[in-house]
Amino acid sequence: MNILEVKNLKNYFHTRDGIVKAVDDVSFHVAKGETLGVVGESGSGKSVTHLAYLGLLPSPPSKIESGNVHFQGKDLLHMDLESLRKLRGNKISMIFQDPMTSLNPFLSIKTQLMETILTHTNISEQDAYKKSVEGLIQVGIPAADKRIESYPHELSGGMRQRVMIAMALLNNPELLIADEPTTALDVTIQAGVLELIDNLKKQKGMSVILITHDLGVVAGLTDRIIVMYAGQIKEEASTFDIFNTPKHPYTKALLQSVPRLDTTKGNRLLSIPGLPPDLAKPPTGCRFHPRCPEKIDKCDKEEPQLKEVGNCKVSCHLY
Amino acid sequence: MSSIAKNYETIRIEKGTSLLRDALYRLKKNKLALFGLSILAIIATASLLTPIIAPYSYEEQDLIYGPQSPNKEHIMGTDDLGRDLFTRILYGGRISLMVGVLATIVSLIIGVLYGSIAGFLGGRTDNIMMRIVDIIYSLPFMFFVIILMVIAGRNIYNLFIALGAVQWLTMSRIIRGQVLSLKEKEFVLAAKSMGVSKGSIILRHLIPNAMGPMIIYSTLTIPTVILEESFLSFLGLGVQPPMSSWGLLITDGAQVMEIYPWMVIFPASILALTLLSLNFVGDGLRDALDPKAKKD
């Protein structure tokens, strides 16, 4: 059963310099208990897609042009704002990139955790406090009953991200959206946080969307991966297929630009030439063609559609 | 993991220090601000205890000698109606400080709510709300206070409200500016993603973060309001004789400055001392609340 179904979602930003097509015809789904990885470089629309259907983008300038988003059968795009607000933090939770700025510096951890619970459930403050402490214990924060009194600046980055995770999981969400949860952390802590997310996911049986630009992060954790480029999905396949038989030239290039332990000494690390396109004036045809090493004639004329190739979906004229 | 956790539990963890507590710590190291605070404390206590410590009643006259220069019975002398000046300064201080504090609180409440709503909602709402502020700004505000006082009737409580109602404009602009930048911070997005309602975001997340400028501007509003009250009293709209305020005492004293200098020197020095102290405290608070300042 699919917990989240996104169909042909288009979200544009109406700016003074024109219409920025940040999310352009994106379709995907998340099954129950599944971990979906969303990969792409900065500005590929990987975060905006999810912020858009949760109603977290400022409007104007952002506007959902068309599409369908269903969460557990409920239409998110035509829901009134109040019901959508009640869904956020309750059934769907989010973790953000930078734990340094995602917590309010003026409020203690306790206040912020309890606020999340009391916003959605009608329980006494004492019960909310107990649940908050349990939440902190669950994410492995030592001396949780004392730490809960702390203010954000007294915690380290890894600790704060754990607090954020605890906060996101307090109301036992069905879907957790982790938006680059480890980008701001150093490598040793990254592994711990990812493992934590994975364990909690298995414990609670929830679905996870893991947004990242780090292929190493998604490799071990996800079941399926979506590769995004310039607001569009370029390839969708199981994690195994993405890493073993990448189809789209962009996916191949991404994989080659990651340093690996088994690269032969002396070989230079590949990088993708050029820059991601300006989404106010995207290139004609395939948006990747100016940087594509396998470009053919019709690439700059005709826009490729996402089509099934074997077990995968690819949007490329080569297939 | 769990064994490490157990070891940690034996370590005593100090109670969290909030930014406000840090600020207080820094304020304590600022001598000038401390000096200001103690002067203010003395003046505030004297005002509170006035009925007990005042040597005379504020309307009691000693007409035998006419206006007296400072002497044993009247340490600050008497005014031209033979009333003890020290007593009148004490009573006047109650009025002046009360006007200062209450009118500032009124302006704080209106300004903070108005400014934070405008800043948070943004867009057209913000535009309309701030243009209203601009229009009120362009009116001669004393004129505005006078109209309010005439409509609402001349009593001291209406004075608080009227003064507060014109002082909130700058406060709302300051808070709006703060909120505009704060609402783009990630913790606001995080709060939204947790389903926190708009009202809670404004009240619990945005306003506390704008506390610094709020407190500082308040300490600067108090002296302004005290001065405005004296101007209104001078026009006969504020405090009515025989009651007095510092502003009124100074106005009276200034008229006879050449013959009875003490009548202006004493109230003016007390007012100046208060305003100076308020400015020192405001200055100290500004430094103390600066989050970039280190805790040393």
Structural class of chain A: alpha/beta
**Cα-atom Rg of chain A, whole angstroms?**
20 Å
Return the domain count of chain B.
1
Please identify the top-level CATH class of chain B: Mainly Alpha
Molecular shape of chain B: elongated
Number of β-strand runs of chain A: 12
Order of helices and strands of chain A: EEEHEEHEHHHHHEHEHEEHHEE
Mean model confidence by pLDDT of chain B? 81
Strand content of chain A: 15-25%
Write the layout of secondary structure elements.
The complex is a heterodimer of chains A (319) and B (296).
Chain A: E1 2-15, E2 18-31, E3 35-39, H1 46-53, E4 62-71, E5 74-75, H2 81-87, E6 92-95, H3 99-102, H4 109-120, H5 125-138, H6 144-147, H7 157-169, E7 175-179, H8 187-204, E8 207-212, H9 215-221, E9 224-229, E10 232-238, H10 239-244, H11 249-256, E11 307-309, E12 312-314
Parallel strand pairs in A: 3-8, 3-9, 6-7, 7-8
Antiparallel strand pairs in A: 1-2, 1-4, 4-5, 9-10, 10-12, 11-12
Helix pairs in contact in A: 4-5, 4-7, 5-7, 7-8
Chain B: H1 2-9, H2 19-28, H3 31-48, H4 50-53, H5 85-121, H6 123-138, H7 141-152, H8 156-182, H9 186-193, H10 198-209, H11 211-234, H12 246-255, H13 262-289
How would you describe this protein?
- The complex is a heterodimer of chains A (319) and B (296).
- Chain A has helices spanning 46-53, 81-87, 99-102, 109-120, 125-138, 144-147, 157-169, 187-204, 215-221, 239-244, 249-256, and strands at residues 2-15, 18-31, 35-39, 62-71, 74-75, 92-95, 175-179, 207-212, 224-229, 232-238, 307-309, 312-314.
- With 319 residues, chain A is an alpha/beta fold.
- In chain A, the strands form two sheets. Chain A has an eight-stranded mixed sheet, with helices on both faces. In chain A, strands 2-1-4-5 form a four-stranded antiparallel sheet.
- The longest helix of chain A has 18 residues, at 187-204.
- By secondary structure, chain B is mainly α.
- Chain B contains 13 helices and no strands.
- Chain B has helices at residues 2-9, 19-28, 31-48, 50-53, 85-121, 123-138, 141-152, 156-182, 186-193, 198-209, 211-234, 246-255, 262-289.
- In chain B, α3 packs across α13.
- The model of chain B is unreliable at 1-13 (pLDDT under 50).
- Chains A and B meet through α2, α4 and α7 of A and α1, α9 and α10 of B.
